[in-house]
Amino acid sequence: MTATGATAGSHHREPAGTGLVGREAELGRILQSAGPGQSTPSRGLLLLGEEGIGRSRLLRAAGEQAAQDGALVLSAHGWAVERDRPYACLRQLLTLVLDETGGLPEPQRRALVTVVAARPGPSPVDARPVQMAVLVLLQHLAASAPVLLTVDDIQDCDQASMDVIGSVIRHLPGRGVSVLLAARGEAVPTGLPTELGLLYLAPLTPRAAAALLDEQPGVPRGRRRLELLEEARGNPQALLELCRLGRSAADRAVPGGKLPQLRFAQDEFESRLAALPATTQHALLYAALADPGEDLWTVMTALDTPDLDVWAPAEAAGIVTVADGGISFRHALVRRSAGARHPAQLRRTAYLALAEAAGPQASRARYRAAAALGPDESIAVALEGAAWDAQDAFTAAATLEQAARLSPGVRDRARRLAEALAAAHLVGDPDWVGDLYQEFTRIDADAETTFLAAAAMSTALSLSSFQEEAFDLLLDVCERTLPGDGPLTLALASLAAAVADQSALPQHRSRLAALLARTESRTRAGSESIGSLARLDDPEVRSALRAVVSLVATPPGSAARLLRGLEQPRLGALPDSPSRLAQRLAVAWAAYQADEADACLRQYRKADAQLRTRKALGLRAWSLAPMADTLLATGRWTEAEALLEESSDGAAVLGQSRVQADLDALALTLSALRGGTVPDPSAAEARWRALDLEGNRATQARILRARALAATAQGDWARAFRQWRALFDADGSPLHPFLSPRAIAELAVAAKRTGREEETARILARVRSQQGERPTTRMTLLLHHAAALVDFEGDPEQHFQLAVVNPESEQWPWERAQARLSYAVWLRRGRRPLEAREQLTAALEMAEQLGADPLAAAVRAELRASGAACAAEPDVALAELTAQQRQIVRLAASGLSNREIGEQLFLSPRTVGTHLYNVYPKLGVSRRHQLRDLLSAAETDIA
Q: For 37-168, where are the E strands, in sequence order?
């Protein structure tokens, strides 16, 4: 049963279709606190937030959900025009349940009917009968079904109704009646009980905002989409309104008529703006057109007034805040409205005044450009000079794009457009790069400029999963416009190598070898510069890039040798030049290929910090998967989780479909390694199906491993083997030359479980031969582990020992723990349980330190099978010890050494050590430091 009051005609109604994107957690909190199924008594919940943040939509969604769950929902909406009418809001709430008042005592029934039915007669002077009547009525209704009261815009509610609602909140918690309120702003409206729970609605996250925007019809693409997301600042209503306007990127260049008006702004803000003094309206125009974060005194200078009182009426109206030497608008749409409501000529005058007042040359150039009436070389030169001084890639790209459009000369326009492409590729939005490249192709350009543009477009294609198109574009540029050798060819070859590694297509690798040969000779002058790309005349940079190309173009096995020949960039505090950054990324990737984890992470971390600071998420996208791979392999799972969460948001906002697929696969990998509840991969699977995985074999390999580990965590070894097996072709050749071989041990474990050893042995032989005579240390360990399981011609024990005794294997803790587990199983089946327990104890410690629950569970099962007591409840396990053993355990847990324990108990240190050695398996621990956690857990169980 559902009842709603008369709530039509809201003065800032949100349009249908806004959905609840990004508000799942808030809706869950609301239903938990104020829904009919609340687990604990609640005194109600108040939603707070700015205009358009989604309060009303959440209120409606909660009411709809509660009604579906069988609750009676009574709703009302506060109105400013009814604030002085007693019980106006209560009338909305109770009109549809007046028939239920018959059972009330007559004085209460009469008082309630009088105020709710609005019958002629004086309003009750005494509010008590009304409040009591409402309490009794709601309790009567709650006897049949839970009751939910929802009131939107409670700050505009009349005081008499608010007192009644307050009485309900205070007297009926946990009695089947819940109260859910919403108010505009950040402050609790006067008159509400202090016991009320609060939920402040923050702006949507960038990822949620992008998802909401992309659901709308006619959503903008490229640069305009990113600008809109930035302008809306996570406000759902602002996103929808700005999307509706569909303003082009040229709106700030003011020729033309009046800007489109905002429906929401006119309803919500226009009256407030129009009511301000003319001088304040004029000042707000300048503030609205100024760059975000512009200094207050720059705006004051442009206004030609020192009087700060000009802002006072706008502050009082809640439009702006003046503080800390700046001026900020309280809402994204009021800023837009404050600028759009003035004619074009007045806006141009404001831009010119701001240009005169601004200090930095970059700001002056941008304001002059906004006021420009057509192409102007002087402004274009100023913009170009300011672009690469910008602290972030987006500002640089937008500035260069504007410089190109203001360039009168064709050659200058082509050069600046190519540099805008290069900067936009650093930002990482494929649509923006595509738009600029389409414009660039209509202009005649020289070889270097053409290469710069094609390189940016190729990168965008690759990030969007189109590897064949990306590779063909680079080859076409090389064949048509570039000379036979030199820095441009090397730069092109390094980009082609990145694409070829992602695709792993044989034809790409074979054609890359020819490109590599062309880079070996160098006949051109060594001072060549290619615009915004790095100068490649530095021998260290050239060597690093050539190593990248060689690693992809040649068979595996040369990574360690090539890495030893490279200069490692220093890790100082100073930021890198573009060429040094290119070298650092190349060296990091070479270290990744050589399985030199520490060197790889040192370089990637340094580069990643700089790329995040510069918002160069396009260039950063190339390093995310290798960096996350390395963090996962080396047991740095917390750092990997943070990297995946943060970078996944960026990839989703920028529309980098291939990068998103990689990150989804790696996130599923981490969840499967940790165990517990593996998240539903359906959303990721849908994104994976949309990709051409055959042309993105690196991504496909990561997906297959993620699926296999998820199947393993669920105990489905047959499905796990199928996924591992798909990492290799029918003849045993790897799907991806780097990623597939590093799964050989996992494939062998699954083969042993499913009886597919012979088939896997052939694959192992193929992998072993492809790795050459000197595989990396990590590959050597993995090959020994696999051989011990499936190579019937070798000595299993020798292979197992070589897989676990090498101290360097500690760099890859999960792989080492898995090898120890396999070795222990072999030992136990060979009737060597004591040796098996030694391996299992070490494996369990490693698995527990990692938080690898599935692996730890498998080790504990083997420990039990080997005769060791394992994984008993802490209090039960302690109870099974002797009194002396428990005393030793408690003293050891407190941090005392064996000698100190012996002195207290009059035992020798050796005897103490023997006792601890004997009790460790019984307690399910392997090291002294775990005793403290075990005792804490036991005390918790007892409590």
A: 45-49, 72-77, 147-152
Q: Residues 337, 329: contact at Cβ < 8 Å?
A: no
Nearest to 154 by CA among 181, 190, 131: 181
Amino acid 198 reads: L
Residue among 690, 694, 688, 695 nearest 666 (CA): 688
Cβ–Cβ contacts within 10 Å for residue 925, how many? 23
Element (H, E) at 938: helix 930-942
Cβ proximity of 194 and 164 under 8 Å: no
Alpha-carbon torsion (534, 539, 540, 543), positive or negative: positive
- Compute the distance between CA of residue 544 and CA of residue 583 in angstroms, rounded to an integer: 6
Tell me if 920 sits within 8 A of 881, measured CB to CB.
no
Tally the C-alpha atoms within 13 A of residue 208's C-alpha that lie toward its C-beta: 18
Average pLDDT over residues 632-649: 94
Please, how many CA atoms are within 13 Å of residue 114, restricted to the half-sphere of its CB?
A: 18
CA proximity to 889, closest of 851, 819, 850, 938: 938
| Domains of the chain with CATH codes | 24-202 (3.40.50.300), 204-249 (no CATH), 251-373 (no CATH), 387-465 (no CATH), 872-943 (1.10.10.10)
For residue 906, is it left (φ>0), alpha (ψ between -120 and 50) or beta? left
Sequence-separated (6 or more) residues with CB below 8 Å from residue 106: none
- The rounded distance, in Å, linking the Cα atoms of 512 and 524 is 21
pLDDT at 101 over 80: no
pLDDT digits (tens, 9 = 90+) for 720-730: 999 999 999 99
Exposure string of 615-643, with b = 16+ CB inside 10 Å and e = fewer, is bbbbbbbbbbbbbbbbbbbbbbbebbbeb
3-state secondary structure string across 549-573: HHHHHCCCCCHHHHHHCCCCCCCCC
Burial track 443-468 (b if 16+ CB lie within 10 A, e otherwise): bebeebbbbbbbbbbbbbbbbbbbbb
DSSP 461-487: HHHTT-HHHHHHHHHHHHHHH--SSSH
Q: Give me the helix-helix angle, 777-790 and 813-829, nearest 10°.
A: 20
Within 13 Å, how many C-alpha atoms sit on residue 10's CB side? 20
Sheet with 197-200, side-by-side order of all strands: 72-77, 147-152, 177-184, 45-49, 197-200
Specify the pTM: 0.82
**What is the widest separation between alpha-carbon atoms in the chain?**
105
Instruction: Tell me the range of 22-36, 125-139, 304-318, 475-489 where mean pLDDT is highest.
Output: 304-318
Residues contacting residue 522 through CB under 8 Å, at least 6 positions apart: 485, 486
Cβ–Cβ < 8 Å for 767, 774: no
Give the count of beta carbons closer than 10 Å to the beta carbon of residue 257: 8
Q: How far is CA 713 from CA 638, 670, 680, 782, 855, in A?
A: 19, 11, 14, 21, 8
The span from the CA of 244 to the CA of 256, in Å, is: 20
DSSP state of 215: T
Beta bridge pairs of residue 197: 45
Tokens found for residue 13: 């109604």
837: closest CA among 828, 846, 829, 845? Answer: 828
Assess contact for 398 and 514: CB atoms under 8 A. no
Q: Are the CB atoms for 622 and 585 separated by under 8 Å?
A: yes
Contact 298, 357 (CB under 8 A): yes
Question: How much is the average pLDDT of 547-564?
Answer: 88
Per-residue pLDDT tens over the stretch 609-630 = 999 999 999 999 999 999 999 9
pLDDT, tens only, 333-390: 899 888 888 899 999 999 999 999 998 888 899 999 999 999 999 999 999 988 877 7
Sign, Cα dihedral of 554, 555, 561, 567:
positive
3-state secondary structure of 320: strand
Sequence length of the chain is: 943
